[in-house]
Amino acid sequence: MIDWSTLHDAYGPAHAIPGLLDRAIGGDQEAVDRLWGRLCHQGTITPASIAALPQLADMAKTEGVGDWALDLAGAIASGLLQHHGADEEVARCAATLAELRAMAAARLRSCLDGKTYLSRLRAMLAFDGQILWFEALDDFTDSFVTVACPHCDAPVTIAVGDYGCYSSIRDWNLGDVHQVELRPAVPHELIGTGRIRQGPRSRTVNSCPLS
User: Fold this and answer.
1) Total-model pTM
2) Cα-Cα-Cα-Cα dihedral sign, residues 147, 161, 183, 138
3) Integer Cα distance of 55 and 47 in angstroms
4) What DSSP character marks residue 112?
5) Sequential DSSP letters for 3-50
6) What tens digit of pLDDT does each residue of 111-127 get?
């Protein structure tokens, strides 16, 4: 049994968390929003965040509740490398994190829309301890990234999401010029974490826009 009076969340004593969890599982959106604010405020977690993981895992199994509970648990897991002062509690949550990882993996389906698929994928990566990948994929459904061309070192803008999926040279006055469509990655050529799960929107750069 958790003694919430001994824990703190982002706003102070965590005594409100049990009531918010009860309300949230009943479909109270205000309670869900307050849980996000208290347990993962701007990405910062506290001992109360970690203590809530087992209950969030149980809630994630409940039809109609699972998505937000899984997403919140994933956001909490992404902060486990922070200085939160609850390392022993994290160690005790190893089985819970493995269970959450399995749930996130099971919910990755090609029929999901891009943003939902990305949310499940990022949660799974967080439960795996792949924090860098979790951060790198933030808002990847609508993002612009500037990289150096591996062939000529020119700055290349990569667009992925609502604006399209292409590489280009960004001009101050003309916008993205010399656009080259991205092509799907070849799954068996991916290495490391990239091989964990290949979604329908996996992309890679086709060529340098200058070539």
Assistant:
1) 0.69
2) positive
3) 14
4) S
5) -GGG-EETTEE-TTHHHHHHHHHTT-HHHHHHHHHHHSBTTB--HHHH
6) 677 778 888 888 888 89
